[in-house]
Structure formats: structure tokens, C-alpha cells
Design goal:
Blueprint: E1 6-14, E2 18-25, E3 30-37, H1 45-59, E4 69-75, E5 78-84, E6 88-90, H2 91-98, H3 103-122, E7 125-126, E8 135-138, E9 143-145, E10 152-153, H4 174-177, H5 184-200, H6 210-219, H7 234-243, H8 255-261, H9 263-266, H10 271-279, H11 281-286, H12 303-327, H13 394-406, E11 421-429, E12 433-436, E13 439-443, E14 450-453, E15 455-462, E16 469-475, E17 480-486, E18 491-499, E19 503-506, E20 509-513, E21 520-523, E22 525-532, E23 539-545, E24 550-556
């Protein structure tokens, strides 16, 4: 792919709608992130206009805690947005890497997000998709809100119907889930879920599938984060629960209200004090065990809380014993009593559309993905046709008809209706070929559930530049499950020394000039190397990069 005025260096990610590339802006010689609308959507007027609107809205926002937009245009029929490249990682990865975070760091993260979001709201911009994946943590400790792809502003016409559901399921507000009109307090709810995640390391609503997740957002009251972090400051516990209140009127009035009300608590932690945590590996491993400011002081256990911890379990034990004595007849086993628990209806609707319902491009985390067996080499897959049930031969058909004729007719009293199939939604970032029990099914994004027979099925998600994801999934009769996966890049590292110095080209793409400050991240596999220096002849070589390993190379230019 070629974008005029930019030199693309590497692909960062590929989603169902857009792809991201690391590039160099030639005229200013600076690194940028290029967000490009995938080729198959270039003729979709709605998506093109949505992409254009994202650029215009984001370009209005100039704030240290919001990713800056540099340019928007069309080159070689490709729609692109050029934006600030943040050297770092998503907040979701940061949480996984450093959990549990010191509360001084939690409060700093909260304050930076609040400042950026308050500015956006003053500009009448609603983000509508606040979540850890859309918060970038720079290696210098600066935090920035990104991805205003679902944002709205009053001056722009709506491109979605009023009752469309947008956002990422586990972080959306109840009013989003119901398709109601949104205001700034919807962003506050998503911020509260993000804050809960930062504190506890988990989303309060994420469940096994999409239906249960939405049901939790609409009905579940999250437990207090104090159950996971006993030393949480009382004000932070109170604020977190207030933000995720389902009653929109009980949330704070605005982001600025939070900044004003908790000004003293938020100002105690400065970037300069925490910078070593982001830049020093030793500090990262010891900071949380060091001296934490008084803001994280462990609260006293009140009499009321003591009663809750001690009295409620005792009451439950007594109630259960009373039930057994009163209602369990002598000589009858417990199995003779019918359960009063009704099954949860997890039936999914089939109207999940790419342009509206749910954004899988930055899907909810599935931590089990990193625990699976990974294969370092994944050759491209030739896609066979979709699976079809084999047709019955004439002999099988006659045999089946004979069996049916000899089978006595079933009555309504003894007829047993058996459902031997279940459904599975698969959402994957980036794209992947889906194989079930070794057979190719389809390539993500897949907007409809896959119908599978009950039992254990082996799921494989393959992308030639990522580790293969494998998992055995149990499909139950009449049940719909959802599998969210974020593939891990199959990357290795290359450390090159060129004496006296040299420009490094990998597969004819310029990357860096020696001496290197750190090893280069390279996709696993075979690559061609070319080292150039205008005073010497070029040096060429080939190299094999192994996933997760660092390869060292030294080159000497000869006169």
C-alpha cells in the first residue's frame, strides 16, 4: 500500500473496518500512525462518511491527553487519517502487566483521563467508547485518549439511527445497551467501568457471551472494589460505584464536577513523581511495594462493616439449617426436590451488524488467549469452501425410510424433543481464518453465529503474522456462547551493529540507523537485510527471526 507523502514502515494491526500502520511523514520527517479504511469498504458511503467525520471531530481536539490528528486525505483511492504515534501500549495491556497498580498510579491515570474527557465534553464531543483499549499509556508516562470513531458532535448529522447500539459491550452504559439518546453521562459510566478495571484488574460486567454481558450491564449491581483491594481510599471507592450507577441521575453531573470535587485528592500525584515507574524496569517491579502516599491508607473497619462480614454468613447458615429441618421430609433424598433456579435465556439475536450494533475491532479482552499453545509458524491457508453436510446415498435413504416405517408412532406423552445443536459467536482482533475440528469455516469478522453440534470442538484462529490461537470449546444444546480473542503477534527481535554506522533496511523498508537504542521488533520468519552507508558499498544478508527471541548481528563496512 502507498500513501502519498508517507513511507509505510510496518503494519501494526488489521481490523474488520480499518487497519493501522506505522509510517514516516516525509516532509516533516516524523513518525505517525496511519489509520486506513480497508479496501472493501471504500464504496460504502455510510462508512466513508463516518471515517471522514472521525477525522473532522478529532482534528478539533487539541489537548495533551488526547491523540492529535495531523492529516486526513485520499491517496490511491485509500482513505486515511494521519495521527500522533504514541510509543507505548494500551491501558488494557498495562493493567495486565502491572496489576495490582499502586493507588498513587491509579489516581494519576484517573486524573489524566478526566482532564482529556473534560476537554472533549467542553467541545461538545461525546466519545461513546471509553475503555482501556482506547487509552494509550506512553513509555514516558503520558496518557492519551484515542479512537473517536464512534464520537458524536452536535454540528454533525447522525449517521446511525436513534435506536442503534454502539460501543464495546462490556464498557457501554445501560442507555447505550437500550439504544437510547446519549449525553456526557454515558461516557461517565464507561469511565467508571474502566476505573473499576484499573483498580481490580477485571471488568464488572464482562461475562461468557454477549447476551450475558448485556444482561449484566442492565441488571447487575457491581460489588464494591473494596472486596478486591482492601486498601482502596474511601473516596475512590465511592466515586467508582457512583460512576457505574445504572440510574443516570445518580452519576456525577459532569467530568468537571469530579475534577472540582476531588481536586485535593487528584493533585497529590504528579507525573514527575511517577515517571520512574514508566521508564525504569526496576522501578516497575519495586514501586508497588515501596512507600505509598497516605491517599492509599487502609480504612478502618467500622462496626457496620464488621456486622456485614460476620453477621450475614451466620444468618445464612441458620436460614439454610431451618429450611432443611422444615421442608426436607424424612427418608427423601435432596435429589427428589425440583430446583427453583430458572435457566438464563442466552439466545442471541441475529441483527449484529458491522455498521451499528457492536464494535469488535477493539473487542473485550479474553485473557485465556495468552494461555493457549502457540505455534510460531503459520503458513497462509488456502480457503476451501464452507462446510456442508454430506448428502445421503440412495441406500442410506432407503434404510432410513425403512427404520422410520418400523418405528412405532410417538405420542405427545412419551415424545422427547432433543436439541442437538448450539451456537458460537467468534470475534477476533485482528482478522483470522476460523478452523473448527481442522476444517476451514470462514474468515473473521463473522456477523452470524456458527451452528455446531453439541460436544467438544477444537477451535483454531490463524493469521500468518500472529500466533495461532487454539481452544477446545464445549457446545451445549440450545445455548449461544461468544468467544473473544486478541491474537498475539508472532514477533522476534533483531539487534544490529554496523561499524562505523549504517542505515538498516529490512525487506527494502528503511527502519533505523545504527547505533540502535533498542532491538528492532520484526515479524518471525525469513527476511532480507541491507545496510547502507554512502561512503561504502552496501552490505546484504538474509536472516531468520524466531518468535520471542533476539538475534544479534554485527556488520563491518570495508573500504
Amino acid at each position: 500500500m502507498k500513501i502519498e507523502g508517507y513511507t509505510i514502515q510496518s503494519e501494526i494491526s488489521r481490523g474488520p473496518i480499518t487497519s493501522a500502520f506505522l509510517a514516516n511523514q516525509d516532509n516533516l520527517d516524523r513518525r505517525v500512525l496511519l489509520k486506513v479504511l480497508n479496501a472493501q469498504w471504500r464504496n460504502e458511503t455510510d462508512l466513508v462518511e463516518r471515517f471522514r467525520r472521525e477525522a473532522k471531530i478529532s482534528a478539533r481536539l487539541k489537548h495533551p491527553n488526547i491523540v492529535t490528528i495531523f492529516d486526513f486525505g485520499i491517496s490511491n483511492q485509500a482513505f486515511y487519517i494521519a495521527m500522533e504515534y504514541v510509543e507505548g501500549q494500551m491501558l488494557s495491556n498495562f493493567i495486565r502487566q502491572h496489576h495490582p497498580l499502586p493507588f498513587s498510579l491509579v489516581i494519576y491515570i484517573l486524573r489524566e483521563i478526566l482532564q482529556g474527557l473534560a476537554y472533549a465534553h467542553r467541545k461538545e464531543v461525546l466519545h461513546r467508547d471509553i475503555k482501556p483499549d482506547n487509552i494509550l499509556v506512553g513509555n514516558d508516562g503520558n496518557l492519551k485518549i484515542s479512537d473517536f470513531g464512534l464520537a458524536t458532535i452536535a454540528e454533525f448529522p447522525r449517521l446511525t439511527n436513534q435506536d442503534d447500539v454502539v460501543g464495546t459491550p462490556a464498557y457501554m452504559s445501560p442507555e447505550q445497551a437500550r439504544g437510547l439518546k446519549l449525553d456526557h453521562r454515558s461516557d461517565l459510566f464507561s469511565l467508571g467501568v474502566t476505573l473499576y478495571d484499573v483498580i481490580t484488574g477485571k471488568s464488572p460486567f464482562l461475562d461468557k457471551n454477549l447476551a450475558l454481558t448485556i444482561n449484566n450491564i442492565l441488571t447487575r449491581v457491581p460489588s464494591s472494589p473494596v472486596q478486591y483491594r482492601k486498601d482502596i481510599p474511601a473516596w475512590l471507592e465511592q466515586l467508582t460505584l457512583q460512576l457505574v450507577d445504572k440510574d443516570i441521575s445518580k452519576r456525577p453531573e459532569s467530568v468537571q464536577t469530579i475534577l472540582d470535587q476531588y481536586h485535593d485528592e487528584l493533585k497529590n500525584v504528579e507525573h514527575a513523581d511517577l515517571k520512574p515507574f514508566f521508564t525504569d524496569l526496576h522501578a516497575q517491579s519495586t514501586y508497588r511495594f515501596g512507600k505509598i502516599p497516605d491517599i492509599a491508607r487502609k480504612p478502618e473497619l467500622t462496626k457496620k462493616r464488621k456486622f456485614l462480614f460476620i453477621g450475614i454468613p451466620v444468618f445464612i447458615i441458620i436460614a439454610v439449617a431451618y429450611f432443611i429441618i422444615q421442608f426436607l421430609p424424612d427418608g427423601n433424598s435432596p435429589e427428589q426436590h425440583q430446583s427453583a433456579i430458572l435457566p438464563v435465556d442466552t439466545t442471541e439475536t441475529n441483527d449484529i451488524k458491522e455498521s451499528g450494533s457492536f464494535s469488535f475491532e477493539n473487542s473485550a479482552r479474553n485473557d485465556s488467549a495468552s494461555d493457549q499453545v502457540k505455534s510460531p509458524k503459520n503458513p497462509p491457508i488456502t480457503k476451501p469452501p464452507l462446510l456442508k453436510l454430506p448428502e445421503k446415498s440412495d441406500r442410506e435413504a432407503k434404510s432410513l425410510a425403512s427404520q422410520e416405517a418400523s418405528t412405532p408412532e410417538k405420542t405427545t406423552e412419551n415424545m422427547i424433543i432433543e436439541n442437538t445443536e448450539g451456537k458460537l459467536y467468534i470475534a477476533c482482533h485482528p482478522w483470522a481464518d476460523v478452523l473448527i475440528d481442522g476444517e476451514y469455516i470462514e474468515t473473521t469478522p463473522i456477523l452470524q453465529p456458527i451452528l455446531l453440534s453439541t460436544g467438544i470442538h477444537k477451535i483454531e484462529l490463524r493469521n500468518p503474522t500472529y500466533f495461532t490461537y487454539q481452544e477446545n470449546i464445549k457446545i451445549e444444546s440450545g445455548r449461544t456462547d461468544t468467544l473473544f480473542v486478541r491474537l498475539e503477534p508472532a514477533m522476534g527481535y533483531l539487534n544490529i551493529q554496523a561499524i562505523p554506522w549504517g542505515k538498516i533496511h529490512i525487506d527494502d523498508q528503511y527502519l533505523e540507523t545504527t547505533p540502535l537504542s533498542e532491538p528492532l521488533s520484526i515479524l518471525a520468519g525469513k527476511h532480507q537485510i541491507r545496510i547502507t552507508n554512502p561512503n561504502f558499498n552496501d552490505i546484504t544478508d538474509s536472516i531468520w527471526i524466531e518468535p520471542g527471541k533476539t538475534t544479534e548481528k554485527v556488520f563491518y563496512f570495508r573500504p
